[in-house]
Amino acid sequence: MNWAEFTNIFKDCKLEGDKILIGSELLKTIDFVKTNYHFDMLKEIIASDNGDGTVELTYRLFSPEDEEDLLISINVKDEAESVSSIFESAVADEKEIYDLFGVKFIGNPELKRLYMPEDWKGHPLRKDYKENDERLNWNE
User: Which residues are bridge partners to 75 per DSSP?
Assistant: First the structure.
């Protein structure tokens, strides 16, 4: 991947370890690397609560042509662009992240809870989540 070309197009990005951290334009970035660098597979989307009200989303892409992984990461508050229009497989990961972290993916055609009941309050993998629900009495 040509880092100079990439940073010329996407000004608000930086290399952080082995991943590219972007500040915005998630959909455009993912589409760009798929189209220009043949990262044709989305392996997974990983979410991590930063503890400051933001969630880091890391997209692990794979290029079968080069047999390489690429990590693209973005920090979001409550919502992010859905990449399901580029990778249909993103629908399931985005539903899981919505359910457990509360990130709404704009453009996901099937965004709903995946594991927790629809009436569940909160998102269990957020660091600010409180387990004060009487439905958890089996856990005592």
Answer: 56
pTM: 0.90
Domain ranges of the chain: 3-129
How many other C-beta atoms can be found within 10 angstroms of the C-beta atom of residue 6? 18
Residues 6+ apart with CB under 8 A from 139: none
Give the tokens for residue 70: 């690429």
Q: What is the pLDDT of residue 4?
A: 84
Residue 22 is given by DSSP the state: E
Q: Which pair of tokens denotes residue 135?
A: 């439905």
Q: Give yes or no for residue 139 having a pLDDT over 80.
A: no
Fold (CATH) for 3-129 = Beta Polymerase; domain 2 (3.30.460)
DSSP string for residues in 60-112: EEEETTTTEEEEEEEEESSEEE--TTT-TTHHHHHHHHHHHH--EEET-TT-S
- The set of residues, in sequence order, having a beta carbon less than 8 Å from that of 105 and lying 6+ positions away, is 79, 80, 81, 82, 84, 94, 97, 98, 111
